[in-house]
Design a protein that fits this description.
With 358 residues, the chain is α/β, with parallel strands linked by helices. It contains twelve helices and 19 strands.
Length: 358
């Protein structure tokens, strides 16, 4: 079968090969035919080495498709079922799951160390235990979440990561309050979803911050009340909050520099919500006096900060009701053979989300 493979960490391009085999099928597993997958910035971060991932590997973790086969013991799925891929399934038994913090379950991360694919030259991993830049993938049954027939594969793929992450950051983690002031730094697919989440929660002012003009324009369409370049954020803070700072600021880039900017844009007693996934050697510096004196809440948000299955259902319900725009997030479409075009669209900021149709 065909799959897009990164041979070595640090390479900027993928090679689409036709000698890749999905492996690991057996009890508790499902084989899925991928129909659509989104390109998330985390895929690019794994390729560059910002996020740890053994190589060679097939990127992609935001996908949807059809079940081809189920292994022994799988009773909730059958061939032909339409599913989205959950890259961080909850085991239901660990301390995090028992506390109701299923998004912190580590069981799914164990899958990242087990090869999902094989080539004549050896094993190939799947990013985050999935690897959706492939025609087929074998995953644990818990990674395959059934979707209603009226949800297209491209929409379902987005719900599998970016939409759930951004919406959940605003609704579950930061719990944006009605009438509040919000800034979102970084307006790709996840940042735009955070903008939509803040709008749903009733924020009065939502300032979108991004260096790319097309993304700023898009943010206005999705509910931002104002969109500015990064160098214009201090002026927006002064105009909108009289210099006090925003009630809630979302950092959706994953860099210490932007996190520091977000901290400074947050009012005393306000909330900094860290959504971007950054590198292990990139440190955010805060002095102990400001940490104590400003009493700003710093809230990281992992995969939307809540139960992902409930978050999927909520996103579908909001989409059906016309309360959120998911189709508009897909600004580009490419076949698997055009995956490197999609990577360039993400790196330049041209795309909010590129759908890879497989």
């Amino acid at each position: 079968m065909r799959a897009a493979v990164l041979h070595e960490t640090g390479q900027e391009k993928l090679e689409v090969l036709d000698d890749v085999e999905a492996v690991g099928f057996g009890p508790g597993k499902v084989r899925i035919r991928i129909r659509a997958t989104g390109l998330c910035h985390s895929d690019v971060s794994a390729m560059s080495g910002v996020l740890p991932q053994p190589a060679p590997f097939v990127p992609g973790h935001e996908g949807a498709g059809e079940v081809l086969d189920v292994g022994d013991g799988v009773t909730a799925l059958k061939p032909g079922d339409r599913v989205l891929l959950c890259w961080l399934p909850a085991c239901g038994a660990c301390p995090s799951c028992r506390r109701g913090q299923t998004q912190l379950c580590l069981a799914g991360f164990l899958n990242a160390g087990t090869p999902n694919f094989r080539r004549p030259g050896g094993d190939v991993f799947g990013f985050a235990g999935t690897g959706t830049f492939a025609e087929e993938v074998v995953v644990d049954a818990g990674c395959a979440v059934p979707i209603p027939d009226d949800v297209p594969f491209d929409i379902a793929a987005l719900i599998g990561c970016g939409v759930t992450t951004g919406l959940g950051a605003a609704i579950n983690t930061a719990r944006v309050e009605a009438g509040s002031s919000v800034a979102v730094i970084g307006c790709g697919g996840v940042g735009i979803s955070a903008v939509q989440g803040a709008r749903l929660q009733g924020a009065a002012q939502i300032v979108a911050v991004d260096p790319v003009a097309s993304r700023r324009e898009a943010a206005l369409r999705f509910g931002a009340t104002e969109a500015v370049a990064p160098e214009e954020l201090p002026d927006a803070k002064q105009r909108i909050t009289a210099g006090e700072g925003f009630d809630c600021v979302f950092e959706v880039v994953g860099r210490s520099a932007t996190a520091r900017t977000a901290y400074e844009a947050t009012r005393r007693g306000g909330t900094l919500c860290v959504v971007g996934a950054g590198a292990m050697d990139d440190f955010l510096q805060l002095n102990m006096f400001e940490l104590f004196f400003d009493e700003k809440r710093i809230l990281p948000s992992m995969y939307g900060g809540g139960d992902v299955l409930r978050s999927y259902e909520r996103a579908i319900a909001l989409w059906r009701a016309g309360r959120i725009d998911l189709a508009g997030l897909i600004t580009h479409r490419v076949p698997l053979a055009g995956i490197n075009d999609a990577l360039e669209q993400m790196r330049t900021g041209e795309a909010l989300r590129t759908c890879v149709e497989i």
